[in-house]
């Protein structure tokens, strides 16, 4: 009788619920947002193969209200795309929303913040990474001298082993003292 379209199989829902912080209803809402990005290309029925291979271009992702004004949008997409292309499959899109959800643990959010701020992807936050991060956070409103001063202060306070960069553990220690971190590292679905 009813020609109800099935977006995901029960196995897919179970896998998504096991790997994210979402309910079935949340997953469907996120899929609707993904589908609306490029409805001419993204099918309504998402097989496991399509969900893990069909990618949405960065130009569509950047138009989402949550990312339009976000100075880290390109870095966020790059970090969540498994191939580094910044184009996302549905699975990657869902992972991104899961990490930015209220239910994601602080440690997971810190881990992804570190990856986002690690512009040169060397698993350390060096002066260049900190400069770029500060430039994004301040939206280029600080002078070079002011940025250098802040970067020096961050390294002075956080670089416990005096290597001239922040390790993940040092970054985690700094972020753990920021009461606003969780509210800034959040997206509503």
Automatic annotation (TrEMBL):
The keyword Repressor is annotated on this UniProt entry: no
InterPro entries found in the cross-reference section: CIBP, EF-hand-dom_pair, EF_Hand_1_Ca_BS, EF_hand_dom
Entry keyword set: Calcium, Magnesium, Metal-binding, Repeat
GO MF term (any one): magnesium ion binding
Listed GO biological process terms: calcium ion homeostasis
Domain EF-hand: 74-103, 105-140
Protein name from the UniProt record: CIB2
Species this protein is from: Acanthosepion pharaonis (Pharaoh cuttlefish)
């Amino acid at each position: 009788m009813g020609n109800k379209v099935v977006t995901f199989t029960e196995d897919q829902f179970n896998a998504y619920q096991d790997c994210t912080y979402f309910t079935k209803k949340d997953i469907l809402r996120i899929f609707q947002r993904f589908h609306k990005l490029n409805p001419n290309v993204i099918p309504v029925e998402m097989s496991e193969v399509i969900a893990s291979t069909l990618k949405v271009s960065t130009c569509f992702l950047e138009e989402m209200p949550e990312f339009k004004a976000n100075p880290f949008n390109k870095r966020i997409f790059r970090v969540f795309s498994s191939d580094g292309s910044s184009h996302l499959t549905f699975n990657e899109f869902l992972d991104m929303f899961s990490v930015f959800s209220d239910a994601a643990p602080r440690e997971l959010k810190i881990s992804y913040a570190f990856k986002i701020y690690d512009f040169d992807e060397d698993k350390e936050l060096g002066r260049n990474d900190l400069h770029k991060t500060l430039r994004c956070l301040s939206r280029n409103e600080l002078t070079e001298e002011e940025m250098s001063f802040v970067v020096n202060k961050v390294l002075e306070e956080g670089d416990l082993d005096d290597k001239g960069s922040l390790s993940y553990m040092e970054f985690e220690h700094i972020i753990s003292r920021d009461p606003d971190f969780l509210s800034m590292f959040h997206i509503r679905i």
